[in-house]
Amino acid sequence: MSALTGPSGITCRTIAVMAVVLHLLLSCGGHRKELGDAVSNRDSMAVMVTKGITTLISENGAIRYRINADRWDIFDRMNPPYWSFEYGVHLETLDSLMQVSSQIMADTAYYYSATEVWELRGKVHAENVDKEQFDTDLLFWDQRKERVYSDNLITIRQETQVIYGQGFESNQDFTNYTIRRSEGIFPIDDK
Questions:
Q1: Number of domain units in the chain
Q2: Are 159 and 131 a contacting pair, CB within 8 Å?
Q3: Domain carrying residue 101
Q4: pTM value?
Q5: pLDDT tens digits for 112-133?
């Protein structure tokens, strides 16, 4: 006589195994893992995200620019396509001896590759080889035309004077510039 058999001859061990199997089947069968939606529109996604970058850019075989940034995102399928530097950028133009001829720093920058125009926003600070300093909150740099410009308020600090203006245009080295609606404090020689 076997131990613990039921009236139909089934053992308690068999009933317990069947109960466990039935419990597992019922508890796993009705639940599906929730998954995120598949990305169907890659237009809004960066094709490349790079952190902590320093890169050199050349023109006609000569290195002309250096870019330093904490993060660089490339959106190649946006209209227009652009590069994004949302965590700050430091741009330098280099002469033929690889010396810095000018530099620009900004809180945020966008580079539109189709037109080769930089849009620099936030605290934008630039310096030229003569140590003149240019500060504004919006500056555009057209690499094709090698020009920088802004319609916003600009402050230019020179060795002996400070100039304010509403609007500005210059070569990309900040050495030949025009200020619109300017004002400032200028020293006058008593002679």
A1: 1
A2: yes
A3: 43-185
A4: 0.70
A5: 999 999 999 999 999 998 899 9
